[in-house]
Amino acid sequence: MTGPRPSSDERGSNTQKPAASRLSDGFEPPHAPDETGPPGWSPAEVLDESDTGVIVFTPEGTVCHVNPAAGRVLPDCVVGTAFPTLPATGTTWRGEVDDRRVHGRRAVLSDGHYAWYVRDTTAERRREDALLAERRRKVFLAEAGRMLSATTHPRRLTDLVTTLPSPELADWVALSVPSMEDGRMRTTYAPATGTPIARVTTGLGTAWTAPAGVGRVLRTRRQELHPLMDRELLGRLVPDEAVADLLAVDARCALVVPVPTDDDAPSVLTFVRSATSEPFAEEEIALAVDYAERVGVALRTSRLYVEQDRRTLLLARALVPGPLPEVPGARIAARYRPVSLTNGLGGDFYAVHPTPVDGTWAFSVGDVCGRGTPVGMFSSRSLLILRTAASAGCAPARRMALLDAELTLGDPSLVLTAITGDCSVHPDGSARVRLTCAGHPPPLWMDPAGRVTAMAFTDPLVAGIPGTVFGERELPLPAGSTLLLYSDGVTEARDADGEAYGVEALRHDLASCAGMPVEALVERLEQRLLEHLGDAPVIDDVVLLAIHIPYRDDHEALPILAELGGPGPDEHPDGA
Predict the structure, then answer these.
(1) Sheet of 251-259: strands edge to edge?
(2) How many folded domains does the chain comprise?
(3) Is the pLDDT confidence value at 266 over 90?
(4) Does a structural domain hold residue 141?
(5) Residue 239 within any structural domain of the chain
(6) Percent of the chain surpassing pLDDT 70
(7) Which key words tag this protein in UniProt (predicted)?
(8) Is 227 helix (H, G, I), strand (E, B) or coil?
């Protein structure tokens, strides 16, 4: 769509005005530049004001021009003389002149002349050196932190602490660790003469009162710098045994730094440099302090591991079952083989407990799923609960319910299988057993004739689930019968081919032990299990607990095995 076209007046005229009219509009043509004379400056003036030094040489190698900047950088360079510091060939040159770092570039001029353009790069090189030194310090701290964190053994750690700083920080390093428990100061140092690492133990009181060095740093927790040492001061700063070594290398300066360890008294690092090394700069002192902080973290970590190992050992000893008590009317024997990888902190346990009822005693076997300190601690607590409940006269089902209630208050990831029961011996020599089995492998019962039967239970495991109900079963045990309780580490033990030992093999081996004394019975079963494993490792705790009801001397059933065609009480089916 188009609108009305504007008139020529509205659009403006395209007719070009004549030249005279255009000149009258106030515009004038540009004038040609006037002829100029010689410039008011000279090339020499430009060179004199340049920050870059310029030195011009004749073809014969004689200096013919030196600008002021070059005179400041190379004050010995004078016109009319040769200056051999700058070569007559090449394109670049780097050197040091009066503690200044100089960089030069050579250019060829006409008529055989040549020029060197030089500048002072001292500030730039110092910045580069500072950056490189900072990077080197960071690499040292990172590597030191990595190596220190990978070592928790106290002796190896102190050795590493004294050897890592050389030669980055010092030529000789000592670590002094005070002990408030025994009042001793233990110092480890790496001798400067290359001899093995040495250790010195002194009284803490003597070191504490020293006027300088370790004792003063212990009291003030502040670092000390000794830029120049004599023989007397050296004797105050280092152990007497190290003085001769340090005098041999001409030890001159020392830095003593506290090591933060969150103890009543800090550990102390002593750095010593010989006369061939530079004194400690501020950056190096800061590096030593950073290194001491990392050493402090490593020492604290090592002590935590040592304390944990000590507690683990104490707990493992507490978990080792003690001697079984003698109970009236029964013979009891057991075997316990914890997995060696857990330092004795397995989850399996067994025990025989007294009860307030005459002629009745209780027994328990359990397995807390998992390994390690938390499992070992809960295993110990579980055994304590079962023992306490039995001593209070609680029935097996009640004991298991109390254990389940305790589990609801602890770690929800812990799961426990257990079997607990009471055994009452009657006047005629027989016995009766009441059992509660919570997810545990059911016991095997061998009657007087050597026949083995596996009991069946359907109770759930102990998992801390509210509302869980545990039942009880009763089993009569006539004289000559044996009840075997075991952990899943027995039946699930696998040989090198991955084949499990299994319940059937255990039943067969138990039947072959008919008539054997109960102590020999559990030993024989353990041997059979190990024979099955061969070279394969034991990967789970092994528990065997056998309860045997012996014949009485006047018991009429004594020859029952012979009547049934089985082995007698003093015979073994295999002739053993």
Answers:
(1) 198-203, 184-190, 172-179, 267-274, 251-259, 224-226
(2) 3
(3) no
(4) yes
(5) yes
(6) 86
(7) Hydrolase
(8) coil
Phi, psi for residue 362 in degrees, rounded to 5:
-115, 160
Percent of the chain whose predicted confidence (pLDDT) is above 90: 40
476: its two tokens? 């009569």
On whether both 155 and 101 belong to a single domain, the answer is no
> What pLDDT shows up at residue 58?
94
Flag whether 32 is in a domain: no
Query: Per-residue confidence at 560, pLDDT binned at 50, 70, 90?
Result: very low
Identify whether the C-beta of residue 117 lies closer than 8 Å to the C-beta of residue 137: no
- What is the gyration radius of the CA atoms in the chain, in angstroms? 47
Domain assignment present for 268: yes
CATH of the domain at 87: 3.30.450.20
Q: What is the DSSP string of 480-533?
A: T-EEEEE-HHHHT-B-TT--B-HHHHHHHHHHTTTTS-HHHHHHHHHHHHHHHH
Provide the CATH number for the domain around residue 532.
Answer: 3.60.40.10
Q: Given pLDDT bands bounded at 50, 70 and 90, which one contains residue 543?
A: very high
How does DSSP classify residue 439?
A: B
C-beta of residue 78 within 8 angstroms of C-beta of residue 30: no
C-alpha 201/C-alpha 42 separation (Å) is 80
Domain containing 514 equals: 327-563
Same domain, 370 and 469: yes
